[in-house]
Input
Amino acid sequence: MGDTEKAIYSKTTISHRKDLKRSNRLGEFLIEKTIFLIGTTAIIILGLIFYYLVSTGLNVFATVSVSEFFASIGWFPVSSNPKYGTVPLVVGSLMVTMGAILISVPIGIGSAIYISEVAPQKVRTVLKVIIEFLSAVPSVVLGFLGIVVLSNWVRITFSIPTGFTAFTGAILVSLMALPTIISISDDAIAAVPKDYRDASLALGATKWETIRYVLVPAASPGIIAAVMLGVGRAIGETMAVLMVTGNAAQIPDTMFTSVRTMTATIAAEMGDTVRNDTHYFALFAIGSMLLFMTTVINTIADYVVTRGKKGGR
Amino acid sequence: MLKVTISDLNLYYEEFHALKNISLDIEDKEVTALIGPSGCGKSTFLRTINRMNDLIDDVKIEGLVMLEDQDIYNKDVDVAALRRRVGMVFQKPNPFLKSIYENVAYGPRRYGIKAKNQLDEIVERSLKKAAIWEEVEDRLNKPALSLSGGQQQRLCIARALAMEPEVLLMDEPTASLDPIATGRIEELISQLKKDYAIIIVTHSMQQAARISDKTAFFLMGEIVETGKTKEVFTTPKDKRTEDYITGRFG
Ligand SMILES: Nc1ncnc2c1ncn2[C@@H]1O[C@H](COP(=O)(O)OP(=O)(O)OP(=O)(O)O)[C@@H](O)[C@H]1O
Ligand SMILES: [Mg+2]
Output
């Protein structure tokens, strides 16, 4: 051992306790309890919201039959003979959401692949900034653009009487879901180890084959999470949809008719209700249904993602 | 027979001159070992032979690399076709997140082989050649990542062999393996040499001495000495080679 090394060793010594007994450290204890308290508070608050929503919503069944609420097709809460059938609203929500998924998923994944694998460095940087920007546009602003630009375009392009349709809503919602889908998928693809890429290319696969058969499958848990998060946003989206879908609570026969979504119904009608009347309760019941639907979707997504992480195929 | 001929090869990573005037002949059905201290350019050199350096931005390559009678850096060379003829095994085992079967079938599938019985045959043959068939025979559909490190490396060798390359590039294939797995892979290399031209990078002098026919000693981007392994190890011509081999260096 050289002299310098000796000097270092003698200066910095760590004295070990010989008994190895656990010491009760107060600080550690407090931190642990505080975190526990914060965590449980969040869960309790969520539980209370859930309870309030559902228990208030259930009151609707005092005056409206279960079959009318879930299975009849008329939603006329303010007529003299009020009807509370939520089917058109559910169908409206599903159409806008499905439409948005069909539009945003292929475009989103395609853009993510382009950004992470194809685009030159400079283009990539510019695109990332644009996407950040798009995700920061408030939905009211998008809704406004939807009214003045998009709905006209839809009306003229498809020569239909009104531009306020499920399709218009779907385009708008997909615009809102896209930044999430693109940026999270991009991260997922970029996180695939370079080793896989090299292995595939070294076997004589082309760049495109490498993307298709190695990168996308390896990134698929992240891509699925991205889609779910994007879609989650799409389902919960209220304002923009309220502004452009035409707000007709009817069962649409095509994507090009006006619809009304569940969220839009709550937002549009809550102000007109009297506290604790049937209409008021009905809107809470719709809220509970939405909560239930998103919970189911998130659970499925969670399952898919964790299974994908473990999976070996 | 000469399989690969490299003449006056220069490679730059941006401004950094990583390979300097490299000339080397690779014989068919022989093992050529590349030795030299870390960072001297062995991996870089290996990657010029299957053009994997093309993937790195700002690389400039000058000189001639011939596979038999073809200039592989010619403009109209199909890089994918080249890489099918020049297979590569990486330092770190890198199986895909797919089953054992699908890992081996990956190359042939991309090549266009679809028939199940043909793929089955290729998978079995390649796994046998890589001396891992007995260990995985009854779990071909299990994830490749469930194998041990040494098994994964042999799987990666099988995956490369499935394309029936003519040249096999191996970048420290036993670096992360224990002596037993290393022994198996060395044995394997001696077997494979009957059919392929093999170029192997190694940090183990003993390994180079055991398995290679020719040795090239790299130092700071240059080839200092090259020749029959026996001669390089017993009567090195250059003082630096001698210092490196005897461990007084790097
Ligand atoms: N992508 C790259 N960009 C810039 N420089 C690089 C790149 N890859 C390697 N280099 C440099 O080129 C030189 C040779 O690297 P290389 O990986 O070929 O060394 P090596 O001989 O394989 O070393 P080791 O034995 O540690 O694997 C090193 O100085 C390294 O820093
Ligand atoms: Mg290396």
User: Anything to note?
Assistant: The first strand of chain A starts at residue 75 and ends at 76.
